[in-house]
């Protein structure tokens, strides 16, 4: 019998293998493209989140994900990877194909505020390069390099009389030396620190305190562009407004639960929850260096329920979002 | 005749099995498929009420922490909690024991993304058979870009 099996494997095996491959591939290609394939199912974090919540992929090998929302409408994106964002209407399968160019740990996440614990609805992709080196750790974030304490209370009593308007500060700002505020100095310094330095400078003598504040607003605005601000406004609306509010006043739909720190909030956000930061609070924001805002976005709130966006956004997106937060203090031109 | 037919079926089955194995080998591995090593988790009923009401991943992280101090005490946290006295990822979940020896849970991780993600990584990598030293290397490489370690 085994002789016959070997015989049949000889003249039947190769065609059978081909036929089986064609059958399976042909059957599956109505929703797949060649490469790796995986089905991800989405439920709110309270009910388990993504399933599976982690998978591995290889550099350069396309992965096709079949995405299905099981309990309500969700959204999907892979952090820092363009072209992966899609909506997931309940029960309607969507597909996303992605090819990773670099090894490392990536996160996929829900892009729609689907429940109080939406921010926990994330999953992990370990992308390996079988022939390459392990991913490098990268350097510490800027706030660590600068020795800034993200969680220290900040306040200044040097406040403008009214909301500074960058356009009104253009003339004085543009008259200052070109290196008055480098990008490095902007990121490391609070507006109050720069205002104090300018207030002492000979170039601002004869100008009012408010005029110097408006020059600060103009200098701050030079660190971004209307187009970047417009992009960041959308990021803010999608990821921040639920807690911090569309006006930045810390009064989004989730704010009351966070501020109350009740049992519900403890389960969803943690026992150290606090009212979301009010970005319109001049005493606090004007004492805050941009590197602190960038660091909070990157690292999260350290137990306060503020998610960490480091794996989700590129560094350029983090800075764009950080720069956008100043529109709650200064009058900027936004597209 | 019957013998020949069954031989054909056997051969065809072998071929399909090989084809199936080859095709399955092309798929990305989910964590569940990769996991070969069972993890020991504390009972959910032994967790504080707010943990029992938390998202499933957070419940799992607390249950793992309670049952595996030997693992999480060797792993750092990068959320910034070193400033509040935490000396490992374990401290984000358990503050100590009371006079009766019962665990005193810390609610910090309930509101922390990095703390829980580090623990979930440790659980996933343990299931894959990685050593704690290898997991420490992975955690350092993954999280150092977000903040300072709370371990030397």
Count of strand segments of chain B? 2
Secondary structure tally: strands of chain A: 9
Secondary-structure element series of chain A = HEEEEEEEEEHHHHHHHHHHHH
Round the Cα radius of gyration of chain B to an integer and report it: 22 Å
Record the strand order, biggest sheet of chain B: 1-2
Helix content of chain A: 25-40%
Describe, in plain words, how this protein is organized in 3D:
The complex is a heterodimer of chains A (335) and B (152). Chain A is an alpha+beta fold and 335 residues long. Chain A folds into two domains: 36-128, Cupredoxins -  blue copper proteins (Immunoglobulin-like, Sandwich), CATH 2.60.40; 143-328, no CATH class. Helix content of chain A is 36%, strand content 14%. Chain A has helices at residues 2-28, 142-145, 170-175, 183-188, 191-200, 209-221, 226-239, 241-244, 255-260, 263-269, 282-285, 290-299, 315-324; strands spanning 36-42, 50-51, 54-58, 63-69, 74-78, 86-88, 94-98, 104-109, 122-128. In chain A, strands 3-9-8-5-6 form a five-stranded mixed sheet, with no helix packed on it. In chain A, strands 2-1-4-7 form a four-stranded mixed sheet, with no helix packed on it. In chain A, helix 7 (226-239) crosses helix 13. Chain A is elongated, with a radius of gyration of 26 Å. Chain A starts with a helix and ends in an 11-residue tail after the last helix. Chain B has 152 residues and is mainly alpha-helical. Chain B is 49% helix and 5% strand. Chain B contains seven helices and two strands, in the order H-H-H-H-H-E-E-H-H. In chain B, a hairpin with a 5-residue loop joins strand 1 (94-97) and strand 2 (103-105). In chain B, helix 4 crosses helix 6 (113-127) and helix 6 runs antiparallel to helix 7 (132-143). The longest helix of chain B has 24 residues, at 2-25. Mean pLDDT of chain B is 85; it is low at 20-26. Classes of the chains: A alpha+beta (335), B mainly alpha (152). At the A-B interface, helix 1, strand 1, strand 3, helix 10 and helix 12 of A face helix 1, helix 2, helix 3, helix 4 and helix 6 of B.
């Amino acid at each position: 019998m085994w002789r016959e099996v070997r015989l049949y494997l000889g003249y039947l095996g190769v065609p059978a293998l081909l036929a089986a491959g064609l059958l399976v591939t042909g059957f599956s290609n109505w929703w797949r493209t060649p490469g790796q394939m995986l089905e991800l199912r989405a439920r709110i974090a309270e009910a388990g989140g993504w399933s599976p919540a982690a998978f591995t992929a290889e550099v350069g090998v396309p992965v096709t994900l079949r995405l299905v929302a099981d309990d309500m409408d969700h959204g999907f994106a892979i952090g820092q990877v363009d072209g992966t964002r899609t909506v997931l209407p309940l029960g309607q399968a969507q597909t996303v194909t992605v090819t990773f160019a670099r090894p490392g740990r990536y996160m996929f996440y829900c892009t729609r505020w689907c429940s109080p614990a939406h921010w926990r609805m994330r999953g992990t992709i370990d992308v390996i390069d079988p022939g390459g080196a392990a991913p490098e750790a990268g350097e510490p974030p800027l706030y660590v390099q600068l020795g800034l304490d993200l969680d220290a209370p900040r306040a200044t009593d040097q406040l403008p009389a009214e909301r500074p308007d960058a356009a009104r500060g253009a003339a004085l700002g543009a008259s200052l030396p070109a290196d008055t505020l480098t990008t490095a100095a902007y990121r490391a310094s609070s507006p109050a620190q720069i205002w104090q330095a300018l207030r002492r400078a000979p170039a601002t003598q004869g100008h009012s305190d408010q005029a110097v504040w408006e020059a600060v607003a103009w200098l701050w605005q030079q660190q971004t562009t209307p187009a970047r601000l417009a992009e960041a406004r959308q990021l803010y609306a999608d990821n921040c407004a639920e807690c911090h509010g569309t006006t930045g006043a810390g009064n989004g739909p989730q704010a009351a639960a966070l501020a109350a720190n009740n049992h519900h909030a403890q389960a969803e956000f943690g026992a150290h929850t606090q009212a979301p930061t009010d970005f319109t609070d001049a005493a606090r924001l004007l004492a805050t260096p941009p590197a602190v805002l960038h660091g909070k976005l990157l690292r999260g709130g350290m137990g306060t329920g503020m998610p960490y966006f480091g794996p989700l956004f590129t560094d350029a997106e983090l800075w764009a979002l950080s720069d956008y937060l100043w529109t709650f203090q200064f009058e900027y031109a936004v597209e | 005749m019957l013998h020949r037919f069954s031989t054909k079926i056997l051969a065809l089955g072998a071929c399909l099995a090989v084809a199936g194995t080859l095709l399955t080998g092309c798929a990305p591995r989910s964590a569940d498929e990769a996991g070969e090593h069972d993890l020991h988790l504390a009972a959910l009923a032994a967790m504080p009420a707010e943990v029992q009401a938390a998202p499933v991943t957070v419940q799992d992280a607390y249950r793992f922490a309670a049952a595996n101090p030997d693992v999480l005490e060797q792993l750092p946290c990068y959320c910034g909690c070193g400033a509040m006295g935490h000396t490992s990822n374990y401290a984000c979940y358990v503050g100590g024991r009371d006079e009766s020896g019962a665990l005193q849970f810390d609610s910090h991780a309930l509101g922390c993304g990095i703390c829980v993600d580090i623990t979930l990584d440790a659980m996933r990598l343990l299931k894959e058979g990685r050593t704690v030293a290898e997991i420490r290397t992975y955690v350092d490489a993954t999280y150092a870009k977000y903040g300072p370690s709370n371990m030397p």
